[in-house]
Amino acid sequence: MKERKYDLYGDVKCRMCLEKNEDDDHIIYCQQLRDKWLTVANNTRYECEQILKDLLSQENYLQLNQEDIQQLMSWNRNFFVYITGLNQELPIPFIHLILRNFFPKEKYRKLKSIVKSEKAILTITTLFIEIFINEFYRIIWQIRCNLVTEWERTRGIKKKNPKKKILAHQRIAYERTLTQQIEGDTYDFKGRKILKHNEQWSISLEKTRQLYI
Q1: What is the pTM of this model?
Q2: For residue 184, is it left (φ>0), alpha (ψ between -120 and 50) or beta?
Q3: In 3D, which of 145, 149, 155 has the Cα closest to residue 10?
Q4: CA distance linking residue 77 with residue 68, whole number of Å
Q5: Are 120 and 61 contacting, i.e. CB atoms less than 8 angstroms apart?
Q6: What's the 3-state SS for 93-105?
Q7: pLDDT digits (tens, 9 = 90+) for 92-108
């Protein structure tokens, strides 16, 4: 919020540790959230284990031999393997990816080697991400938002303040780029093609697939 409304929020620090500036990385590394992140990870593993057992009970949906079942359960138990030992340091593995709805490719490949059904793999990975994000929201994000709301109340910041319209003289003036149409495509006068939103999305999606799948 302070990046958009510095006049209201100034140099306010993380409401958990009261020391560091809050950003996307800090909420993952904040030492005051260490135990809560461990709880998120452990709850995710436990809930996912229950779901896997339910899926395995549906013989028409997921058919595995005993060895594969053991590997699948081990895959789930060891998903956050780096926090199960004595060295329980932040960040928990894969937080950055999962919070952005990306599933770690190494974990995906391991799961694929155990579960051959594409439908089952998609179900498991989707539910895993959903459980993790729900636990994060319940255990960390809601508490963080409540602390921020209380801080805003003590500073007299109301909901309408952050949404206040920018005055005309404060707005950034943008120059219009002159374009031309060539064979159905749009170019600027320097010959650079201007991509449509669906073309930009396709390029971004393809790059994401190359990185995470």
Answers
A1: 0.68
A2: left
A3: 155
A4: 14
A5: yes
A6: CCHHHHCCCCCCH
A7: 778 888 888 888 888 99
